[in-house]
Amino acid sequence: MGDKLIQSSTVHASSLIDAIDEKYQRLIGFIASLEKAAVAFSGGVDSSFLCHAAAAALGKNALAVTIVSPMLPKSEIDGAVNVARLVGIEHILVEEAEIDGEVAANPKDRCYRCKKLEFGSILAAARERGISAVLDGSNVDDLGDYRPGLKALEELGVVSPLRQAGLGKDEIRELSRRFGLPTWDKPAFACLASRIPYGEPIDREKLARVEKAEDYLRARGFRQFRVRSHGDIARIEAAREERPRFFSEALLDEVSAAFKSFGFLYVAFELEGYRMGSLNRALDSGGVR
Predict the structure, then answer these.
(1) Residue 12 in this model has a pLDDT that exceeds 50
(2) pTM above threshold 0.90
(3) For residue 43, which of 79, 141, 200, 229 is within the disulfide window of CB 3.0 to 4.6 Å?
(4) CA atoms in the 13 A half-sphere facing the CB of 229
């Protein structure tokens, strides 16, 4: 009986590996058929893996484009530069120093407006280099959350090859691990604007203090967390496995002092812990117009 269970488990594991390999080959074949392509590259798990696949499929005909804006922390930009160098893909940075007025107003479709502008810039940069196909790192798991940005990509004709290949987040992480990408176990990340509730205006000062607060926690060894900004209040969300670390008077005092030095007046802790897209609750309750 035991031998049969082991054999069954082995066969199951082998079939899963074959399925992932098949999806990867499908991905490479599709990208290769484009002949030239530019990858919208944020430095996250998905777009880093897509850069690797584009470089493997197209060689010198692959390009990575990163938008540098107040919405993206410097640490993410630095990480993107390092990954691009590692996978051997040409990489350009497009500077966007100002926050668009409609995006800064932070309506519930902020992500749609922001993606429309950012991908418009990426498309322009690609076309200047004779590239018509722009790829993004959306995967099949992204279809389960409120993501108005996906609508903008469809309107602009941006291609999502990871979704087309049927790849989900866990499979992308596994393939990234196989290919030695340092992002394979990188925690989920979203732009800094996602830390500010819909309807509350976004400005550089708010984004900067959130960035400083998150850099501080990251330097203290925390991995999966968010610092949500509610006016003068910083609300910390930490992954369940990391929450117990906060139950220390010394650490609480240190974090409070640090965050207040960054410009917050009050520091709060979310008892539920980290939840991706937690600010979308206001949309479900009808609290944002």
Answers:
(1) no
(2) no
(3) 79
(4) 29
